[in-house]
Design a protein that fits this description.
Elements lengths: L1 H8 L10 E5 L4 E6 L2 E4 H11 L16 E8 L2 H11 L3 H4 L1 H5 L10 H15 L11 E7 L8 E14 L5 E11 L5 E12 L10 E2 L1
Parallel strand pairs: 6-9
Antiparallel strand pairs: 1-2, 2-3, 4-6, 5-8, 6-7, 7-8
Helix pairs in contact: 1-2
Length: 212
């Protein structure tokens, strides 16, 4: 109930289109469909608080370990698949509808790097700080799990695994996040772990936990 009160206090004009409530008699739990995706309400209070912070005011402290975020809705089109692949990954199952039909994929699919670029766009638009970002030293455990096809709609789930202040440079730190890309059937099509460097809002002489 505490969550419900907090959610109802959130400005209506700021709530995503498609938010609805449903009471489950069997479990006695209220579930919230946030932006047309059903999750438990406890999972979504993080999104409401986080999305209320403008990107130009987000800093290291706003990315809390254990927080989970869902966002994004990008349509993948045939023309975009072919255009991207023709420039950067010209394999026939990315560039030719006819030839792709005869491939093991049974049709045109997006380059994995195209999918990664779309994921990056959603991260920039919804997750990363606008001014406090300091780039990334790299990704780990990158996996392409299912083909992305024309007409798919992609979204992201981001779970913050760690947040560490630098000991040598206490004005900044590193956020480690698990990023999962989903299609409209909620099938995971891509996954990776990212380390994101960003500035802190406040400088402390005794950061904890720390990283070099």
């Amino acid at each position: 109930m505490d969550f419900l009160l907090k959610y109802m206090a959130f400005p209506v004009e700021s709530r995503p289109v498609g938010d609805t409530f449903r009471f489950c008699r069997e479990t006695g739990r209220v579930r919230l469909t946030l932006n047309c995706r059903e999750t438990t309400m406890a999972e979504n209070i993080t999104d409401l608080h986080f999305s209320a912070i403008p990107r130009d005011r987000r800093f290291l402290e706003d990315y809390r370990k254990g927080d989970h975020h869902r966002f994004g809705d990008l349509l993948v089109t045939e023309d975009e698949i072919i255009k991207f692949a023709s420039a950067f990954d010209p394999q026939y199952f990315h560039t030719s509808v006819g030839e792709a039909t005869e491939s093991v994929f049974g049709g045109l699919i997006a380059s994995g790097w195209h999918t990664g670029s779309l994921a990056m766009r959603m991260l920039v638009d919804h997750f990363l700080p606008e001014r406090a970002g300091l780039g990334s030293p790299g990704l780990d455990e990158l996996r392409w799990l299912k083909p992305v096809r024309p007409g798919d709609r992609l979204s992201l789930a981001v779970t913050i695994l760690d947040n560490r202040r630098s000991r040598s440079k206490p004005d900044r730190g590193a956020v480690t996040a698990q990023v999962d890309v989903y299609n409209q059937q909620q099938e995971r099509v891509m996954a990776f772990t990212a380390v994101i460097m960003m500035r802190a809002r406040q400088i402390t002489d005794q950061p904890s936990p720390t990283t070099e």
